[in-house]
Amino acid sequence: MNLLSLFKQPDVVVQDKPFLRWTGGKNWLIPTIKKIVNKIEFNNYHEPFIGGGSVFFSLKTNKKSFISDSNNELINCYRAVKKNPKKILKILSRYKQTEEQYYSLRNEKNGNEFIKAARFIHLNKTSFNGIYRVNLKGEYNVPYGKKNYDFNLLSKLIHSASQQLKNTNVNNSDFNESISNICQGDLVYLDPPYTITHNNNGFVKYNEKLFSYDDQLQLSKFIREIRSKGAYYILSNAHHPEVKKIYNQFNDNVYSLTRGSVIGGNLKSRGKYEEYLFTNII
Fold first, then answer.
1. CA–CA separation, 89 vs 23, rounded Å?
2. In 3D, which of 130, 100, 108 has the Cα closest to residue 27?
3. 1: confidence class by pLDDT, cuts 50, 70, 90
4. Residues of the domain holding 144
5. Domain count along the chain
6. Which of 39, 211, 245, 250 has the most C-beta neighbours closer than 10 Å?
7. Residue 41, number of CB atoms within 10 A of its CB
8. Is the pLDDT of residue 3 over 80?
9. Which CATH number does the domain housing residue 232 bear?
10. Would you call 173 helix, strand, or coil by DSSP?
11. How many CA within 13 A on the CB side of residue 202?
């Protein structure tokens, strides 16, 4: 097969799946979130902790959207995919899905925005459990995951993502900076890094800068501002008494949901644990 046929611009069919793997991703929550979102008509969409974007892509909204994250490598990837998916796929087609290629790319630092995006995607798709983790120097240090990906499927997902990102403002910023974009009737989905480990899922280990307890308090103030603007919010967070204490102050709807852990290195170490959804959508 001619690889050129795989990264040429296809007749784009918008997919409802992300092109990245992401530890802590919310694919499992999407049916519940859609049921909640279907209760309202909203204006613009906001997601200040975009991560792998599973909720954003699943909604397939044609509304104006604002997505952001403090991970500059991730945001560069989204911007590059939005700008020119063909360039990224052309670079990706040169990479071998081998352990040697993985560690060679992991050690590279230079390149333009498209090279960096292609490298980010390849490492993400072939890493251990799709984890994004850096050391104290800010260097990506996730081991090889012995995992391959379907280039043809990835091509479709990247072209689809580029299409969905056309009407989207993409920012590398802290969540607090997004408040100025939120207006009455907008919808905000919040999925912060988890401060508190529940059932030993170890989320706190995967952040260069820990989203601290104080950050959780700041996020609760952010939600207060969202509510004061007359906007809607949905927050997913760890199922823990302290978390409920912080976010239940608004007397909004609280959902307690259970899912299987996918963090453990083997099936025996994977368990089930609960998470919370908080929302002012009735």
1. 23
2. 130
3. very low
4. 71-172
5. 2
6. 211
7. 8
8. no
9. 3.40.50.150
10. coil
11. 14
Task: Give the separation between CA 184 and CA 28, rounded to whole angstroms.
Answer: 29
pTM: 0.88
For the chain, list the strands marked E by DSSP. 45-47, 65-69, 168-172, 187-190, 232-238, 253-260, 272-279
The pair of three-digit structure tokens given for residue 30, joined into one six-digit string: 């999407």
C-beta of residue 93 within 8 angstroms of C-beta of residue 7: yes
Q: Do 99 and 158 have their domain in common?
A: yes
| Cβ contact 45:63 at 8 Å | yes
Q: In this structure, are residues 172 and 70 in contact, taking their beta carbons and an 8 Å threshold?
A: yes
Give the DSSP H/E element, type plus range, for residue 272: strand 272-279
Domain co-membership, 46 together with 76: no
Q: For residue 279, what are the β-bridge partners?
A: 234, 253
Q: CATH number, domain at 147?
A: 1.10.1020.10
Of the three residues 157, 172, 187, the one that is the final residue of a domain is 172
Q: Which of 172, 205, 221 delimits the end of a domain?
A: 172
